[in-house]
Amino acid sequence: MSSITYSDKIPNNVNLSEDRTLQRALEQWQPNYLKWWGDMGPDDSQNFDVYLRTAVSVDPQGWAQFGHVKMPDYRWGIFLNPAEKDRKIHFGDHKGEDAWQDVPGEYRANLRRIIVTQGDTEPASVEQQRHLGLTAPSQYDLRNLFQVNVEEGRHLWAMVYLLHKYFGRDGREEGEALLARRSGQENNPRILQAFNEETPDWLSFFMFTYFTDRDGKFQLCALAESSFDPLARTTKFMLTEEAHHMFVGESGISRIIQRTCQAMNEMKTDDVSKLRAAGVIDLPTIQRYLNFHFSVTIDLFGADESSNAATFYNTGLKGRFEEGKRMDDHQLKGGTYKVLNVQGGQLVEKEVPMLNALNEVLRDDYIKDSIGGVERWNKVIEKSGIPFKLKVPHKAFHRNIGALAQVKVSPEGRVLSDAEWKANVDNWLPSETDRAFVGSLMGRVVEAGKFANWIAPPMLGINRQSADFEYVRFN
Amino acid sequence: MDMSDLQAIKQHLIDPEICIRCNTCEAICPVAAITHDTRNYVVDADKCNLCMDCISPCPTGSIDNWRNMPRVGAYSVEEQLTWDELPPELTVEQLAELGVAADTPPVEAPVPQSAAGVPDSFNSAQYGATLPPWSAAHAYTNLYGPKAAEKTITATVAGNVRVTAVGHEYDTHHVVLDFGSLPLPVLEGQSIGIIPRGVDASGRPHHARQYSVASPRNGERPGYNNLSLTIKRVLQDHQGNAVRGVGSNYMCDLQVGDKVQVIGPFGASFLMPNQPRSHIVMICTGTGSAPMRAMTEWRRRLRQSGKFEGGKLMLFFGARTKEELPYFGPLQNLPKDFIDINFAFSRTPEQPKRYVQDLMRERAADLADLLADSNTYFYVCGLKSMEEGVVLALRDVAQQAGLSWETMGAALKAEGRLHLETY
Q: Coiled-coil regions in this chain (chain A) (predicted)?
C-alpha cells in the first residue's frame, strides 16, 4: 500500500524526491502557502494542540490517525490513491483507450481551467471560516472546524501539485494566483460566487458544510471519473476527507434542530419571539438559512445549458456522478434531458441535448442527495412530536446563474412579480434581523464537555472519544 | 436446520440515524458488502468478512455497530434498507427463542482468501485474534490510569542492565521495577505504561509510554512483587534522522533506587495458554522479544517445578546482528529439548539477509503440524513491517500442507490462537 513519506519537506506518496525540479518548484511555493495560512487560517489558534486526523497512508488502516497537533505543524501534503492497473477511459469519445498519465496537448487549457476552479474553492473555504474559532459553541465543534480547515488547505496542495507537475510555467503561475485571490475581496475575489459569501456565524457554517461541501462531493466525484488519471486519483482521496466536512454540517444542523425542539417542548410554544428570548434558533429561521445556502450552492453547478460541460464530457475530462455505475452508452450522443426555462414569464420544461445538459444532470443528482439529508433533519423534528417540516426550495428559487437568473420565483416554484418578491423576501431568505439574532447567540464555549445553549451535544465523539474529551488544548 | 444454522454471528450494522450517506464505506469495502438506496447504507451479512477496513475512514462513527444474531436470522439487506433507527439488541430470551443458547459465543464470519491471492492485497491484521486463548488466566487491566481511582502507582528501580553487546550503537536495557507492597498483578504478554519525568517543549507533562512486560506472572524474581521491561534506547526515527526518544532514554538512564510513575496493566488478549500441553510459537524482532521472554521463563519455571506436560515452545527471533539481539546469551543456555530456537540475522557481514519469515518457511514441516494442532498458539511481536510477511508465511505453510487457509485463518482468529502485536 502507498505509505506517505513524512521525512520530505513536503509529505507525499508520489516519490517527490525523485523529481528534483518539481520538488524545488513546490518548495518555493510552500513558504508562500505557509504565509497565506498564517494570514488567512483560523484566527488566534496557532498555538493550540488540536485533536486532528492525519493520514499516514492512503489505505483504510492508515488514513485516519488521530493525535493532538498544532495546526501550523499539520502535515499538509500530496496524497494520491493507489493507481488502478491498466485503467481505461470509460466515457466520452476516447472510451476504451488507456487513461492518460499525462495531459494531452489539445485538452491542456480546459484541464487547467477545471483544476484551477476546483483548487480555488479550497483556500476560499479557509478564508470564509477564519473568524469562526472565536465563537465556537464547544471544544468538539472547534476541533471539527479546525479539521475542516486543515483539510481544505491540503486539498489546495493536491490541486497545486497537479498544476506544478503537469502544467509547467502556466501551472506555477496559477499556483501563485491561488494564494493571491481572497474570498469576498472586491478587486481580487475567488472565482465562484458562493465562495465569496460570508460565513459569519455557526448556523451559516453548518449550512455551508452541509450544502456547499456536498457540492464539493459531486464535483470531486465527477472529477474522480476523469480520463486524466492523476486528477482521478487525487480527487478520490480528497473525497474521503470531504465526507467529514459534510458530516460536520449535517450533524451540526441536526443538533441545532434537536435543541430547538427540546426548548419548544419544554416551553410548550412555537412562538418565535419566546424561543429567541430563550436563546435557541427557531425553525423558520433555520428554513430561511436553508433556502439561502441551497440556492446559492446549486448555482455552483453552472448554467443549465452548457457547451463547456458537453466538451468536458466528450473529451473525457469530467464524467457524471457515479459514471461507472450508470448503465448507458457513456457517450450520450442521442439523448435528451429536461431543463427548466422561462417562457412568457412562466417556468416550462424544455428538452435539450443530454450532453449540453450535463450541469443540470449533476445538479439534479445533487438535489436528490441534499433532500435525503433534509428528510433526516425532519425525522428529528418528527420524533419530538412537532408538526413542522423543513423543505428544500424549488430549483428556480433565488437563482443567479443560467436562464433562471432572469426570473423571481417563490420557494414553492411560483413565478412572481418584483413587487411580490420584495414584499416576501424576508420570509424566504435570512433578513438582517435574522442574521443579527443568530449572530447574537454566538459566544465562545470551550470548557471540555460544555455546549452553547442553542445546540445539543453530538451523539458520538470524534473517534469514539467521550463527551468531555479535551479536543483542543489551549496552551 | 443443521448445527451451523444455530450459530450466532456478530452482525455488522450501520446506524441510519447518524450515517450521513457519504459513500466512504461503500467505496472502501474490499468485498463489496456495503450497498445503499436513496434511504440507507447497509451491510450484507453474507458478504461482510469483518475486515474492519470501513471503520476508521467513516467520519461519523455510525459504521461501528454490532449485534449478536442467529446466523439464519441475520437482518437482511432489504430489511435494513427500511430502517430509520437501529433495532435494539436481542435479549438472551429472544436469542434463546431463535435457537441460540445464551452461552454460544458469536463466531465471526469466515475470513475469505485475499481476492487475487497477491501479497499486496493481503491484510494480515484481519487474522489477529481479539480473544485470549481459552485457558488463559484472567488478566487485570487499567488498575492505574486517568480513569482509575488511583492515577498512577510508584515503582522503585531495582535493576538496570544492558542486554545487547557493549560498545555497539544499539543499546537495549533490561529494567527491573519493584512495586513493594502495592498491587500490580500482571500476566505474560501484558504491558504497562511509564510516565517519563519532566515536561515536554510546551511545558506539559509527558504522555505515558507503553512497554511489554518481560518477566513472568510471579515476578522477575519468583515470589517478589517486581517485573522487568526490555527497552531499546531510541536515537533515530524511522527515517534515520537524529531524535532522542523521550521514554526510552528516560528508562535506560534510570539508576537503581529511582522512583518511576506507572499506569496499567494493559492488554487482555495477547496472553499465554495455561493448559500445560499447549504449544507456543513465538515470532519476534528486537524488543518484541519481551513478552516471549516472559512466556518462556514462565514455562521454564513450571518445568522446574514439575508442572510442565510437554507443550512445545518454538521461537523465531530476528535482529540485524547477533550483537543486537537482546538476551542472546541466556537464550543459548536453554535446553534444546525445552525450546526450539531459530535466529534470523539480516545484517551479518558477508551473509545473505535472513528474516524470521525465511526461517519459518524452512521450518514449514514442523510449523504445519503445529498449525493443524488446535493446542498451538502463535504470537507475533515486533516491527509492523514483519507482520504481513509472517502471516503470509503461515498461510503458505498451511496451503503447502494441504490445509485450507480460509478455514485455518478464521479458526486462528476465532479461537484466540494468533496474536499480533506490532508497532
A: none
Q: Are residues B17 and B70 in the same domain?
A: yes
B277/B361 same-domain check: yes
The verdict on a CB contact (< 8 Å) between A372 and B39 is: yes
ipTM rounded to 2 decimals: 0.86
Whether the Cβ atoms of residue A199 and residue A126 lie closer than 8 Å to each other:
no
Total of domains in chain B: 3
Q: What pLDDT is recorded for position A468?
A: 84
* Residue segments in chain A with a per-residue pLDDT below the cut of 70: 1-2
Q: Is residue B244 domain-shared with residue B362, that is, in the same domain?
A: no
Residues B371 and B407 in one domain: yes
**Interface of chain B against chain A, CB under 8 Å?**
17-18, 20-24, 27-28, 38-39, 52-57, 59-62, 64, 84, 120, 125, 202-204, 239, 241
pLDDT of residue A175: 97
In terms of residue numbers, what domain contains B252? 153-266
Kindly report, residue by residue over A154-207, the tens digit of the pLDDT: 999 999 999 999 999 999 999 999 999 999 999 999 999 889 988 999 999 999
Size of interface A-B (CB pairs under 8 A): 72
Tell me, which fold does domain A16-473 have in CATH?
Answer: Ribonucleotide Reductase, subunit A (1.10.620)
- CATH classification at residue B23: 3.30.70.20
Q: Are residues B217 and B234 in the same domain?
A: yes
Residue numbers of A between 335 and 374 with CB closer than 8 Å to B: 368-369, 372-373
Judged against a pLDDT cut of 90, whether residue B154 lies above it is answered with yes
Mean pLDDT, residues B358-365: 91
A336 against B204, higher pLDDT? A336
> Three-state SS string across chain A, please?
CCECECCCCCCECCCHHHCHHHHHHHHHHHHHHHHHHHHHCCCCCCCCEEEEEECCECCCCCCCEEEEEEHHHCCCCECCCCCCCCCECCCCCCCCCECECCCCHHHHHHHHHHHHHHHHHHHHHHHHCCCHHHHCCCHHHHHHHHHHHHHHHHHHHHHHHHHHHHCHHHHHHHHHHHHHCCCCCCCCCCCCHHHHCCCCCHHHHHHHHHHHHHHHHHHHHHHHCCCEHHHHHHHHHHHHHHHHHHHHHHHHHHHHHHHHHHHHHHHCCCCHHHHHHCCCCCHHHHHHHHHHHHHHHHHHHCCCCCHHHHHHHHCCCCCCCCHHHCCCCCCCCCCEEEEEEEECCEEEEEEEEHHHHHHHHHHHHHHHHHHHHHHHHHHHHHHCCCCCCCCCCCCCCCCCCCHHHHCEECCCCCEECHHHHHHHHHHHCCCHHHHHHHHHHCCCCCCCCCCCCCCCCCCCCHHHCCCCCCCEECC
Same domain, B315 and B415: yes
Residue that terminates a domain, selected from B213, B248, B266: B266
- Contact between chains at A7 and B241 (C-beta distance less than 8 A): yes
| Residues B250 and B317 reside in one and the same domain | no
In a mutational test of the B interface, the residue from A7, A221, A240, A248 whose CB has the highest number of chain B CBs within 10 Å is A240
Q: For chain A, what is the mean pLDDT?
A: 93
Domain assignment present for residue B392? The answer is yes
Query: Has residue B120 been placed in a domain?
Result: no
pLDDT, tens digit, 9 for 90 and up, residues A108-159: 999 999 999 999 999 999 999 999 999 999 999 999 999 999 999 999 999 9
